[in-house]
């Protein structure tokens, strides 16, 4: 927990300095104080807007317990074993198979599943995937990743092209967008380095296997998710890509700069090696 707090503190200090330095050079101590205040206001805006902007961007709707009683029971049981508060449940209406978790704390977190995950995964595989998502909440790296997603969403909104424009207006906006991307995204790279999860994906896979006690369910779920992705791809904005269990496709090439994640095959091989090392009771 101390490492997580240190990384977030460094992230906050970075943005405060970034906002305070230009006015400090122009207007001295008064500019420094004003810029620092703007930096703190920026961080406060990201935090107090909560998870709603990210959930809205994902087009996720609340999932009542009555519509998914089996999923709710799985989540509550895994949370009991991990000593976690039960997260809010959301669903994305898509046949793709994936799951995302986000939250500014363990008490303010959300589990987002796709409709395809609920419809196509057998119960034991669904339990394994849910356990894997909750292990991410338990690891505490999720706090930093949610801050990163919220920051990138803010920057992405600054570079969006408005619909309903003429060809000339679109050309001008695309030029402005390019200029902003060349400036805004590079300065956010240190934030990505500070807040991106440090815990290896394979370690969380192993934690999920221990939690469920099922050695093969998560491996089989990964293979099914990979197979379905070939004809039912999930496309999300790159600012939320790292929140998903299996990285979905994105139209933004800058995602490769910000996020590197091991492929499904590498994670399956790591899990199979871990399974072989487990002692059979």
Quick structural gist:
With 281 residues, the chain is α+β, with helices and mostly antiparallel strands. It has eleven helices and four strands. It is 64% helix and 7% strand.
Task: Give the rounded overall mean pLDDT.
Answer: 84
Number of strands: 4
Largest beta sheet: strand ordering: 1-2-4-3
Distance between the termini: 33 Å
Low-pLDDT runs of 5+ residues are none
Question: In words, what does this structure look like?
Answer:
The chain is an alpha+beta fold and 281 residues long. It has two domains: 1-48, no CATH class; 53-142 and 197-277, Zincin-like. The chain contains eleven helices and four strands. The chain has a four-stranded mixed β-sheet. A hairpin with a 5-residue loop joins strand 3 (99-103) and strand 4. The radius of gyration is 20 Å and the shape is elongated. The two termini are 33 Å apart. The model has no long low-confidence stretch (mean pLDDT 84).
């Amino acid at each position: 927990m101390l490492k997580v707090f240190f990384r977030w503190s460094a992230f906050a200090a970075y943005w405060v300095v970034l906002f305070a330095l230009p006015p400090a050079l122009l207007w001295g101590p008064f500019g420094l104080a004003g810029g620092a205040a703007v930096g703190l206001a920026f961080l406060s805006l990201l935090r107090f807007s909560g998870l709603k902007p990210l959930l809205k961007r994902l087009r996720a709707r609340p999932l009542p317990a009555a519509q998914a009683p089996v999923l709710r029971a799985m989540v509550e049981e895994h949370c009991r074993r991990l000593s976690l508060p039960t997260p809010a449940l959301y669903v994305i209406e898509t046949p793709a198979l994936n799951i995302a978790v986000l939250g500014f704390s363990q008490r303010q977190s959300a589990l987002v599943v796709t409709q395809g995950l609920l419809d196509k995964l057998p119960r034991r595989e669904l339990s394994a995937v849910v356990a894997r998502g909750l292990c991410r909440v338990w690891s505490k790296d999720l706090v930093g990743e949610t801050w990163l997603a919220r920051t990138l969403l803010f920057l992405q909104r600054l570079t969006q092209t408005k619909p309903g424009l003429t060809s000339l207006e679109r050309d001008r906006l695309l030029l402005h967008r390019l200029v902003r991307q060349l400036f805004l995204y590079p300065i956010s790279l240190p934030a990505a380095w500070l807040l991106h999860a440090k815990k290896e994906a394979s370690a969380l896979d192993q934690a999920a296997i221990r939690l469920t006690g099922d050695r093969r369910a998560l491996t089989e779920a990964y293979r099914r998710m990979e197979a379905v992705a070939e004809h039912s791809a999930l496309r999300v904005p790159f600012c939320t890509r790292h929140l998903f269990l299996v990285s979905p496709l994105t139209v933004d090439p800058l995602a490769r700069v910000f996020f590197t994640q091991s492929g499904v095959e590498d994670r399956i091989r790591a899990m199979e090696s871990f399974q072989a090392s487990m002692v059979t009771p």
